[in-house]
Write a structure and sequence with these properties.
single chain, Rossmann fold, 2 domains, five-stranded mixed β-sheet, about 20% strand, globular, disordered N terminus
Length: about 375
């Protein structure tokens, strides 16, 4: 078994060289990124250098990538970094988020597999999986290295975490693409990462065009959002194992709520990720909120009866009593497949809801039933 695994890894070791990033600058044309704060892209005549900043350690580089066209000889004097041969042809996406983006960019031919396929809602991805065109990569949380390497991938798209690593995958010789887009401080910042992914999959023009559309629509919708006294106060999410996690002010979701015209109850919480709070804290801060948005994933739609049965104190919120709770069932609605790179679609849904809270239908959020 070990011998077979080594033979699978050996060609990948020869094709890709992972090196520790340095702080040396590369001379070339810097790609102007308007919103993404964690990416720096520099083009030269023979390769493109992409630096991913460490979101948890300011001034440090999480990973450096050196993109070199497939079939071209490696340029002399490459800086230290991870060489990635482009365009990718057999990548594995550990998240349905990035696989869904590839579907929208018409680049599914560059994917060999997607992990956590049971969570796929996107029709295009579902068809690719059901037809066998796209393989099931297993669990993203407990990846089976032998199973993944048997696919002979040319890159693995993984999610970085503070202080975390990627185990045996680090030693496999396959480029690990650190998808730190979720740590961007703005919705458009995260969406702009599609331009980096476009470079990797050889669909740069389509990615640039899609992002320009997203940016234009997002900015237009933001100008249509409620202002002043018309802004509803907003509570989001619910208890999870005794703790209530809310998006921080500088998270992408925290910013979207504000951009959509809500007076978000936790807009003063520092950070880029989620903030854990006690129920009593949430009740004190958002007990009188006008609206309550709940994302959940289950076979049947959430109801007021179930919400109260799950945790009776939920009934103390004014939004619950006034029947102003709106749910998004992520098992049936492509919220996670679409919104990370199409925040304009989410913003349109939220602006419509905040301006017309009596509406009965929405792209993502709809009123709970009794």
């Amino acid at each position: 078994m070990r011998a077979r695994l080594f033979l699978l890894i050996l060609p990948l070791l020869l094709a890709s060289c992972g090196r520790r990033p340095t702080d040396g600058a590369t001379e070339g044309d810097t790609l102007r990124l308007r919103h993404a704060s964690l990416l720096t892209v520099v083009r030269t005549d023979s390769f493109t250098q992409v630096d991913v900043a460490d979101p948890w350690h300011e001034g440090h580089t999480l990973r450096r990538y050196l993109l070199v066209g497939a079939g071209r000889p490696l340029p002399h004097g490459l800086p230290e970094g991870t060489v990635v041969r482009t365009p990718l042809r057999r990548a594995v996406a550990f998240s349905t988020v990035h696989a869904s983006l590839m579907a929208e960019l018409h680049a599914l031919d560059g994917l060999a597999a997607v992990c956590d396929s049971r969570y796929v809602v996107s029709p295009a991805l579902r068809r690719a999986l059901d037809s066998g065109r796209l393989a099931d990569g297993g669990s993203s949380m407990t990846p089976d290295a032998e199973r993944l390497l048997a696919l002979r991938p040319d890159a693995l798209f993984v999610s970085p975490y503070e202080g975390g690593g990627h185990g045996v995958l680090e030693q496999a010789g396959v480029p690990l693409i650190e998808c730190a887009d979720y740590m961007e401080a703005s919705a458009l910042g995260r969406a702009e990462w599609m331009r980096f992914y476009g470079l990797l999959f050889g669909c740069e023009a389509r990615a640039d065009s899609l992002f320009a559309l997203v940016e234009r629509r997002y900015e237009s919708l933001r100008r249509q959002a409620p202002r002043g006294e018309a802004c509803p106060t907003l509570l989001v999410d619910r208890m999870d194992g005794g703790t209530w996690y809310v998006p921080a002010a500088r998270s992408t979701m925290g910013q979207i709520y504000t951009d959509a015209g809500a007076r978000y109850a936790f807009a003063d919480q520092a950070g880029r990720g989620s903030v854990p709070l006690a129920f009593e804290t949430v009740l004190a801060r958002a007990g009188e909120a006008d609206l309550w948005l709940v994302k959940y994933g289950q076979r049947t739609d959430l109801t007021y009866s179930q919400l109260a049965a799950d945790y009776p104190p939920y009934a103390r919120f004014r939004a619950f009593r006034a029947r102003r709770v709106y749910g998004c069932n992520t098992m049936h609605v492509p919220f996670y497949d679409e919104t990370p790179f199409r925040p304009d679609l989410l913003l349109a849904d939220l602006v419509g809801l905040f301006r017309h809270p009596d509406r009965r239908e929405g792209r993502y959020f709809t009123p709970l039933h009794e």
